[in-house]
Amino acid sequence: MKREATTAVVLLVLMVVAAILAAGANPLLLVAGIAERALFTRAGLLEALLRTIPLTVMGLGITIAFRARVFNIGMDGQLIAGSVVAVALAPLLPANAAGIALFLLLGVLGGALWGGIAGLIKARYGGNEIIVTIMLNYIAIQLLSWLVRGPLQESMRIIPRTDSIDKALRLPIIFEGTRIHLGLVIAAAMIILVAVLVRRSRFGFKLDVVGANEHAARYAGIDPRRIAGLVLLVSGAFAGLAGAVEISGLYGRLQEGFAPGFGITAIAVALVARLNPLLVPLAAFLFSLLYVGLGALARNGVVPFPLINILEGTVILLFLAGSVAFSRRRKVAEATDG
Three-class SS of residue 7? Predict the structure, then answer.
């Protein structure tokens, strides 16, 4: 088993090296370039920290879902849904601090609604949440494209985007001379909330029981389908919050591609953090550093941008290979001790 895991890791590493060489880059120089841009420049570190905010919030939502073995692949669609609801209703909000809170709450409700659709299908009809959430992603993307070219397009009707939200609804900058906004504090609060939720609450206990054994959960009086439906709603709420934070803190308006690939990266973040809420921000920051470093090299024409997705996918596969090997060794050890 150990040999199989080692072989899998070696093959994955060789695949990444081959992809880098095929892109015409030197793997060693590539690593050095990523580190230089992401770790040793102020702009790189600040950009990585800024990207860490939504990835942390979404990673926490994935953590909640995956602990119950509910595979929410629709965070991108839920993020879009939350952002759309918040921006669409923004003109009705008061131009003060309460308006900011309501804007974020609308994002939460929009994401929860979109996740709740998948949750309802899962809980009531036993639908496969992977297929349903992926399909809802496509619907959300096309819905966003229609809205920014139709009902919500900016008043000049030139660019496919909305008008800017009121400045009073923008999250304040917390570090002068940077773009780091109050979303950083919100993300920190969510870390504490989820850590308490999964470790100190009945809901967290139910998540772990359902995730460990559905049959045991039913025997204990816990309905796995109901938990799955609720989990999809809750994780969708986190995605919607992340979208509202991105709009209010960074973009100020709704447009296509404002949060590309955050949902898939959030899955990688949660897996690398081993579904531990306290480790999610660290994993999010590491992936953000990788994105910033590779992004800078891609913009300079050193490597193609899709290489970022290749490396992210490789990290997930490496983690899964290691997890499978660890689980097998533990089962063997338990059987031997028994």
Answer: helix
Query: 255 by DSSP, 3-state: which?
Result: strand
337 close to 38: Cβ distance less than 8 angstroms: no
Cα–Cα distance between 323 and 283 in angstroms, integer?
16
> What is the maximum alpha-carbon separation in the chain?
73
Which pair of structure tokens corresponds to residue 285?
A: 């920051």
Q: Buried (b) or exposed (e) across 71-107, using 16+ Cβ within 10 A?
A: bbbbbbbbbbbbbbbbbbebeebeeeeebbebbbbbb
Number of H helices, E strands in the chain: 13, 0
Query: What's the pLDDT band for 1 if we cut at 50, 70, 90?
Result: very low
Identify the DSSP state of 116.
Answer: H
Q: How many CB atoms lie within 10 A of CB 142?
A: 11
Q: pLDDT digit string (tens) for 179-193?
A: 999 999 999 999 999
The Cβ-side half-sphere exposure at 287, using a 13 Å CA radius, reads 34
